[in-house]
């Protein structure tokens, strides 16, 4: 494509969100460029969801490491994005390879060439956050990128962080024979979720021989003749061959030139967006959480406001739009710091595409599932008990052990539990969590119930097939209905 071409829309970042926005806009007849610096497709198919789920499945099937990594490399297409690029071409999207940097309203530079745009969609994703630990830079470390692409199986692996990435990776490497330890600074695994879920997973990992150091941080790291040594804040030490840093991710906002559009996103904080995924300029916003997660999506509860201050969509100042003529600046995916999953990125991408095409659509984040694909699977949706407490919401909890289902007997696997949370004042389900086999499949109806605000009286009338784990939600639903 020639230099200085003017596009209807430039999509910055060709991952899950970018690919989808670009193809939806191009299919609607817009002249669209997708700017990608690495692989078209982004993290999910090559470095994140797909390889990690492939390795977890191989581990469950008892395959060898060699077979598991061969399968992993097959499903990630050996990190070749030809098929993704062909999909873009077929949709009519121009792919511009290189780092994109906004030069000012309506102007972007990619690999030394300038281009014009009417709408800009920022889909630059997130990157691993590496904690400042004395000596860490001098010892062999991986992030999930390496852990999911290299052929090595370390003899001793320390995983720094017990969130979704740390727990999935710890289970993979422990299953294939590495001696694994997790160091997690909070007192439990999966701190964002209901305590029983993290405890169920901790129990499963301990049974596999994983050494859990909860409530401890790594204070110092040092390279040794063979491997490395970590000193922990609780006085303990760990010897290992490799450290896998899984201590969170931060939205990728640096070096994008967004300040030229008046967008100030402090490092580590997601781009604030309204409910239409229009990027907001926030006047006097306070520093955000440094883990990149928005405390509360601006869009979910307070349309038109970014957390911490009055806000307006970029470009609405002085009667004009900074994106150029009649365009705007939008964002979708991890860069917003909201929900941070592939399915949420896809959802926001559709919301953006619809709004750019002039069909107003507002995002609703109340029922985006969060799944950790370990054994047991941990599924959460809506509000967690801790979040309810933060919001001052009076929630009723009802739970059920999966062991009481006939399916558990049939599967000879009695581990797991489900909990449902209802807002007492509104008499509605607002959240749920489950730890158990296939929970990612049989809990989907709860996401629908929360999103559709289905009355409990109707939910208690739904019949589940026998023998399924899905039957486990019937008793807690009846209990909640009886207590409300
Ligand atoms: C180990 C791991 C496992 C995960 N597993 C799951 C899972 O099972 N299910 C799930 O739903 N989610 C999972 N996630 C989260 C999921 O991967 C992300 O939420 C998703 O990839 C976000 O998509 P995105 O489009 O926002 O960003 P990305 O996919 O990261 O795409 C952003 C793209 O932008 C490009 N880019 C950035 N800046 C520029 C620039 N200036 N110029 C050009 N290109 C640029 C990058 O190269 C990248 O390709 C996992 C994450 C990790 C780390
Ligand atoms: N299956 C999925 O959907 C899936 C899987 C993996 C990741 N993801 C996405 O990727 C995002 C990132 O996941 P993550 O697990 O890297 O991040 P996270 O923020 O969810 O968890 C990081 C953990 O590391 C701990 N930690 C931070 N600094 C530490 C330190 N110095 N010492 C010890 N512990 C420390 C934190 O307390 C936290 O528990 C998630 O929010 C999720 O959205 C999704």
From TrEMBL:
Annotated EC: 1.-.-.-
Region (Disordered): 281-321
Domain FAD/NAD(P)-binding: from-to ranges: 7-281
Keywords assigned by UniProt, alphabetized: FAD, Flavoprotein, Oxidoreductase
Keyword Transport: no
Matches recorded under InterPro entries: FAD/NAD-bd_sf (IPR036188), FAD/NAD-binding_dom (IPR023753), FAD/NAD-linked_Rdtase_dimer_sf (IPR016156), Pyr_nuc-diS_OxRdtase (IPR001100), Pyr_nucl-diS_OxRdtase_dimer (IPR004099)
GO molecular function, one term: oxidoreductase activity
Biased composition (Basic and acidic residues): 288-304
Essential cofactor(s): FAD
Pyridine nucleotide-disulphide oxidoreductase dimerisation domain sequence ranges: 368-474
One Pfam family matching this protein: Pyr_redox_dim
Recorded family membership: Belongs to the class-I pyridine nucleotide-disulfide oxidoreductase family.
UniProt name for this protein: Dihydrolipoyl dehydrogenase family protein
């Amino acid at each position: 494509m020639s230099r200085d071409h003017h596009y209807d829309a430039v999509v910055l970042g060709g991952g899950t969100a970018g690919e989808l926005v670009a193809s939806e806009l191009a299919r609607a007849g817009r002249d669209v460029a997708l700017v990608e610096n690495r692989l078209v497709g982004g993290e999910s198919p090559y470095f994140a969801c797909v390889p990690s789920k492939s390795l977890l499945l191989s581990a469950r099937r008892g395959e060898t490491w060699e077979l598991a990594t061969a399968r992993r490399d097959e499903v990630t297409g050996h990190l070749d994005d030809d098929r993704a690029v062909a999909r873009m071409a077929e949709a009519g999207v121009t792919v511009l390879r290189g780092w994109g940097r906004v030069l000012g309203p309506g102007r972007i530079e990619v690999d030394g060439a300038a281009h014009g745009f009417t709408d800009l969609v920022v889909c630059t994703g997130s990157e691993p956050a590496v904690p400042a630990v004395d000596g860490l830079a001098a010892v062999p470390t991986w992030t999930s990128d390496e852990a999911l692409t290299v052929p090595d199986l370390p003899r001793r692996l320390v995983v720094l962080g017990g969130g979704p990435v740390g727990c999935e990776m710890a289970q993979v490497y422990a299953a294939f024979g590495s001696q694994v330890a997790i160091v997690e600074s909070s007192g439990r695994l999966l701190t964002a979720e209901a305590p029983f879920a993290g405890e169920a997973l901790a129990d499963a990992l301990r049974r596999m021989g994983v050494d859990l150091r909860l409530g401890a941080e790594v204070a110092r790291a040092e390279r040794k003749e063979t491997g490395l040594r970590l000193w922990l804040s609780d006085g303990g030490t760990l010897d290992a061959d490799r450290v896998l840093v899984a201590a969170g991710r931060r939205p990728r906002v640096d070096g994008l030139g967004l300040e030229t559009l008046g967008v100030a996103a402090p490092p580590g904080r997601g781009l604030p967006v309204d409910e239409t995924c229009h990027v907001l300029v926030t006047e006097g916003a306070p520093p955000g959480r440094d883990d990149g997660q928005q405390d509360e999506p601006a869009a979910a509860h307070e349309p038109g406001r970014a957390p911490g201050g009055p806000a307006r969509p970029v470009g609405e100042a002085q009667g004009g739009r900074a994106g150029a003529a009649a365009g705007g600046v939008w964002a979708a995916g991890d860069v917003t710091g909201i929900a941070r999953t592939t399915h949420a990125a896809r959802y926001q991408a559709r919301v953006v595409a619809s709004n750019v095409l002039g069909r107003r659509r507002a995002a609703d984040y109340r029922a985006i599932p969060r799944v950790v694909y370990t054994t047991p699977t941990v599924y959460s949706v809506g509000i967690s008990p801790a979040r309810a407490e933060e919001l001052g919401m009076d929630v009723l909890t009802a739970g059920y052990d999966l062991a009481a289902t006939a399916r558990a007997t049939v599967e000879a696997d009695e581990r797991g539990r489900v909990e449902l949370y209802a807002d007492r004042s509104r008499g509605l389900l607002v959240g749920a969590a489950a730890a158990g086999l296939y929970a990612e499949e049989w809990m989907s109806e709860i996401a629908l119930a929360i999103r559709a605000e289905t009355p409990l009286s109707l939910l208690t009338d739904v019949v589940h097939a026998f023998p399924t784990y899905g039957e486990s939600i019937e008793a807690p639903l009846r209990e909640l209905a009886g207590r409300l």
